[in-house]
Every structure is written in structure tokens, then in C-alpha cells.
Description:
Layout: H1 5-13, E1 18-22, H2 26-34, E2 39-42, H3 46-49, H4 61-74, E3 79-83, H5 93-105, E4 110-112, H6 118-129, E5 134-139, H7 145-148, H8 158-174, E6 178-182, H9 186-194, E7 200-203, E8 211-214, H10 216-219, H11 237-253, H12 268-276
Parallel strand pairs: 1-2, 1-8, 2-3, 3-4, 4-5, 5-6, 6-7, 7-8
Helix pairs in contact: 2-4, 5-6, 8-9
Amino acid sequence: MRLTAKKIIDYKKQNKKITALTAYDYSTAKYFDKANVDIILVGDSLAQVALGYDSTTKVSLEEMLVFTKAVSRGVQNALVVGDMPFMSYQISTQEATKNAGEFIKSGAQAVKIEGASPYIIETIKHIVQSGIPVMGHLGFTPQYINTIGGHFVSGKNLETTLEILKAAKKLEEAGVFSIVLEMVPTQSAKFISENLDVPTIGIGAGKFCDGQILVSDDALGKYDNFCPKFAKQYVNLKEEISKAAQNYVKDVLEGNFPNDEQSFALSEDEAKKLENYTQN
Ligand code: KIV
């Protein structure tokens, strides 16, 4: 049965850890769903890992929706969250709500939005009131990279930790069902998590968050342009894919692929006819 945003909040009350991974294609999403991952985020990290852009700010709404459709087709049980890309929710609340709706029409059950400025809070309220669950995102927020100026840890002292908590409280009041905390020290993330009713989903935010999320290409060892300190690699797909491709090239060049097993054969009769046939 499909996990809902409401059940994700219940998990926190029940002290049950929430598991989340990003996915960008049908097959991977299907395997993650079968592995009982609770939340599958179609993250705008696909800008880098699937499309080869140098920043998440480059991916368009249209591109995000193609990947959301693919992932949604592979998922039956997990909650699919569509990551609203840069400039799809910053122009006006009306446009943001319409765009959030496009994710739902593409098969997601919720959307994620970065930040907690007064405008973002108003926009989130409107989207939630329209019937679309929203996941917040605080700490390091990649879509603001040009104003932040780099990949920095947030909440490194009491003052900034309290600022994140204040922002998280506003998100909670606006109706989010969970908040991603990215690159926040363990103790700060623990304090923030303990002072919220909605669950925190950590990425580089230590083990005391209510749940954890990883970019799947990091977890699967597939993307090697940049490896964040907080990522854990569970398999080296880069090596496996490279080895498989090298073996394939070798097999074809040496005439070892395809063999009879991978080919279609004529019946003996037809093969004989073809052999004896000489074209004028
Ligand atoms: O786009 C993404 O993959 C994300 C995760 C880092 C949470 O936002």
C-alpha cells in the first residue's frame, strides 16, 4: 500500500526511522521500492548526475517532469516526491502552485521546495492548501549556491542553529510534512529534530535526524565528478559498468558475442535452401 505524507509524520511519533533515496529512472526506482525505501525523491541533483549539468540551477521543470514520470511508473509503495527546480516556484505563488500540480499529474504524491523566506512560506501554505504535500529543505540549499557562494555547512554555532530551527518552525506552521536538513552538524541537527513535530530527513546531518536520504548515484558509486564527505557508497557501479562495457567491446571484437544462444536460427531446411540459392 502507498505510503502517505501523513504516515511519514506518524513514523516520527512512533520513533520509526524514515528511509529515503533519490531516483531518476524507472528500473532503479522499481528496485528501491522493492527494497522498502519509504520516500523516493526525484531530486534536482539529476541535473548533475543524470544530465551532466554543472549545477542544479540548470535543470528545467520540463526535464524534471520527464524523470518524475519515469520514476513514478516504477513505484507502487513508496512516497514519490518531485523536487521543484530553480525558478519553478520563485516567480509567483500562482505559478508555483500550478507547477507543483504538474508534479502530481506526472505521478508524484508530494513536492520538495528549498528555503523558508516569507515568500516561500506563503507559497508553501498555498500549495499545501491546494492538496499537495510539501517537503521543506534547509541547511545547505543547492539552488541558492550563487548567493551562498559555496558548499558550506550550516548551523555551526548556537546562533545559526537557532536560525535554522526558527525557519523549520515556520515551515512546520506552513504545513510541510518533513524537512530535509543538508550539511548541518550532528548536534545541531539533533537539537532541531527534537524541537520539531515533523520529521527531519538528514543528508550530511548526522544520525539523530528522524530519517536519512542519499543521492542514489553516490550510494551506488556511479557519479565520480564530486564525492561529498557525507555520502556512503554501498556498491561500486562505476567499476562494474566500466568492466561490463570493456568485456562487451572485447567479446564483439573477438567474435565471442553474439553466440548461438543469443541468436535466431533458420530451420535446417530453410538454411539449406538459402545455402543452395545463388542470386543471378
Ligand atoms: O536533489 C537532491 O538530490 C536533493 C537531496 C540532496 C536531498 O535535494
